[in-house]
Design brief:
By secondary structure, this protein is of the alpha/beta class. The chain has one domain: SGNH hydrolase (Rossmann fold, 3-Layer(aba) Sandwich), CATH 3.40.50.1110. About 50% of the residues lie in helices and about 5% in strands. Helix 1 crosses helix 13, helix 9 packs across helix 10 and helix 12 runs antiparallel to helix 13. The protein is globular and about 55 Å long. The two termini are about 15 Å apart. The relative contact order is 0.20.
Length: about 350
């Protein structure tokens, strides 16, 4: 069973309901522990880059609400699990994935005047996150909130650059590998259809009244990430991935969009991002071919939420209205036991398809 981002819609994830649904799966899965299981030999991976990264564990994901929601992280985790289940041998060195994204967060420290609370900044919690998780690889994805939904300005852009440089430097100083994901896209046409383009009646811009040209801000951010030496082991252009996939989808569906509000994208975007991460990191073809099923992604999403809420509670929440998590040791034990119980069942299901 997987443990991991649908980056979609609302910042909140249903807290207690999701936890109880997960516990129901856990209790059902525990019944399988009485059956015997085999110790399977390791499978080698021919890409040196992939071979190195997959053995550096855990992979820790930092970002805003599109990371917090967990879509692409969950798909990645389910993808790794499905590849194991579809193979006669286990993929050695499979990393643990930890989603520590935070809704509303920035790397810049900026916040709209009309935001309901001061936006959290990753630098308020980064040191504790790195010390507690001891990551092998850190994935970071910021930018959507960092322009605070205004037209481009050198001042806000400079704050973003400074925040990303500081973030990259601290991650590298921790000894972890660093993978930067470019900012995604802003879908102005969706917001236009909703009649919510800014400025608001106050004359100011905010997430609920964004500038029509806000995607230009994300484009500038993405180009800077790609062209600047930030000491990253990889910079993955998820913006280009999303733009290309959207153009392909629009040819058959002129009404296609990733999001319902221009900002928080749904399952199709998360899946495209997960695949691009695997491609860019040199994942082997057999793994790429083992695309995860919906049931595996759903289980991975629930696992991800259990661990996410536990680690966010332990490392310090810098945003109000977040669900309380289990103690980390308890969350880890729950997920480990559920994964052990479901390993044989998942392998049997995939092998019979």
């Amino acid at each position: 069973m997987a443990l991991v981002l649908a980056i979609s819609g609302d910042c909140q994830d249903g807290g207690h309901a999701a936890r109880f649904r997960w516990l129901a799966w856990f209790l059902a899965a525990s019944c399988l522990l009485g059956s015997s299981s085999r110790n399977l030999p390791a499978q080698s991976v021919d890409s040196l880059t992939w071979d190195d990264l997959r053995q550096k564990t855990p992979w820790v994901f930092l970002g805003d609400s599109n990371t917090f929601s967990g879509g692409y992280v969950a798909v990645l985790d389910a993808w790794l699990s499905e590849a194991n289940a579809a193979s006669s041998v286990e993929l050695a060195g499979r990393p643990k994935l930890l989603n520590l994204g935070m809704s509303s967060e920035t790397a810049s420290g900026l916040s709209e005047v009309d935001h309901p609370f001061q936006r959290p900044c990753v630098h308020q919690r980064l040191t504790k996150v790195l010390r507690m998780t001891r990551p092998g690889v850190v994935f970071v994805c910021y930018g959507m909130n960092d322009g605070i939904y205004q037209p481009f300005s050198e001042a806000t852009f400079g704050s973003y650059q400074q925040g990303i440089r500081k973030l990259a430097a601290e991650v590298r100083a921790s000894g972890a590998r660093l993978v930067i994901l470019t900012p995604p896209i802003f879908e102005a046409e969706v917001v236009r259809q909703l009649g919510k383009l800014g400025p608001a009646k106050t004359g100011r811009y905010a997430y609920f009244a964004p500038a029509e040209e806000y995607d230009e801000v994300l484009s500038r951010q993405a180009q800077w990430c790609l062209q600047t030496d930030l000491g990253a082991d990889a910079v993955i252009d998820i913006r280009r991935t999303l733009l290309d996939e959207k153009q392909r989808r629009l040819r058959s569906d002129p009404e296609f969009s990733y999001s319902k509000d221009g900002i928080h994208f749904g399952a199709s975007a998360h899946r495209a991002i997960a695949r691009q991460i695997l491609l860019r990191l040199g994942a082997p073809a057999p793994l790429l071919d083992a695309e995860p099923r919906s049931a595996a992604i759903e289980r991975a999403t629930d696992n991800m939420r259990v661990l996410r809420d536990a680690y966010l509670s332990a490392t310090g929440k810098n945003r109000p209205k977040l669900a309380a998590g289990w103690p980390v040791w308890y969350a880890e034990a729950l997920v480990a036991r559920a994964n052990q119980a479901l390993t044989h069942e998942e392998r049997h299901e995939v092998s019979n398809e």
